[in-house]
Design goal:
- The protein has 279 residues and is mainly alpha-helical.
- The protein folds into 2 domains: 120 residues, no CATH class; 134 residues, no CATH class.
- It is built from 11 helices and 4 strands, in the order H-H-H-H-H-H-E-E-H-E-E-H-H-H-H.
- Strand 1 and strand 2 form a beta hairpin.
- Helix 3 packs parallel to helix 6, helix 6 packs across helix 11 and helix 9 runs antiparallel to helix 11.
- The longest helix is centred in the last third of the chain and has 29 residues.
Length: 279
């Protein structure tokens, strides 16, 4: 009972902070997700460093993730173009070359996990900027629109909650027993149905996308968010751990809470790009 109360309080505060920072304006959004990016990369690096022979630079990897997030923000607001990414490329080169002199046990693993920390963790958070900031060339101004990143998070939460409720009540057929024995096909259908239903609500309140466009975005988040959840489950199973950390009482680590987002956001960005340019 005590754990349920702690879990509920943590969950409510977590959602409240995210909603506030996304809705309040650009600077709370940037500050929150820059911090989250750094903490998630640091958490990832801490986990992989438990693997025998792996010792990646947690601080430099985290700083690289934060800089990548800020560089994407600057690029999306048309601050200085691609030149913003030059320091990030220099950092990646440093992280590669430094292994030549560090004399660590397994430099290839260090290279692989360092690059994975950027591609798997940092890049999806950086891509949130492409959903949020839009440079208006005609007016030489930056438009901040919270609706798209907000919708991705809400779709993800509804998918997870719907899947849990439907799976608890009706779950019989395992979705991916080898990786996540508790997930069921019935739960996935329930989560998907709840998410798609919410897309019609977004369509009624926002004209950014057409109704079919909103439904399509919901489907993308459901599919790729589920894969994101399973991906992190496989990662934790490989490391032999239950939670990625303990920063959120009752919920585990930050990666546990953002696992679906890490795959759903890049997929949503690709979907919206295709929708805008080819459909």
């Amino acid at each position: 009972m005590k754990n349920l109360i702690i879990r509920t309080i943590t969950g409510v505060l977590f959602v409240a902070i995210l909603l506030f920072c996304i809705l309040y304006g650009p600077w709370p959004f940037v500050l929150l997700f820059a911090v989250i990016t750094g903490l998630c990369v640091f958490e990832f690096a801490t986990l992989v460093n438990r693997t025998k022979g792996v010792a990646i630079n947690r601080l430099m990897s985290s700083m690289g993730g934060v800089y990548l997030f800020l560089a994407f923000m600057g690029f999306c607001t048309n601050a200085s173009g691609f030149i913003l990414f030059i320091p990030y490329l220099v950092l990646l080169i440093y992280l590669m070359v430094s292994e030549l002199y560090a004399k660590k046990e397994n430099p290839v693993n260090n290279w692989a996990y360092t690059m994975l920390s950027q591609m798997y963790v940092a890049l999806p958070f950086a891509l949130l900027n492409t959903l949020t900031f839009h440079y208006n060339k005609a007016e030489d101004a930056v438009d901040y629109n919270a609706i798209l990143p907000l919708s991705v998070f809400i779709f993800t939460w509804l998918n997870d909650t719907g899947a849990y409720c439907a799976g608890t009540l009706f779950g019989k057929h395992k979705l991916f027993e080898r990786i996540s024995p508790k997930k069921s096909w019935e739960g996935s259908v329930g989560g998907g149905a709840a998410t798609i239903a919410s897309s019609f609500v977004f369509a009624g309140f926002s004209s950014i996308l057409t109704t079919p466009g909103w439904v399509g975005l919901a489907l993308v988040v459901v599919l790729f968010g589920t894969w994101g959840d399973l991906t992190e489950s496989l990662f934790k199973r490989h490391l032999g751990i239950k939670d990625s950390g303990a920063i959120l009482p009752g919920h585990g680590g930050l990666l546990d809470r953002f696992d679906s987002i890490l795959i759903a956001v890049p997929a949503a960005v690709a979907y919206l790009f295709i929708l805008k340019n080819f459909i």
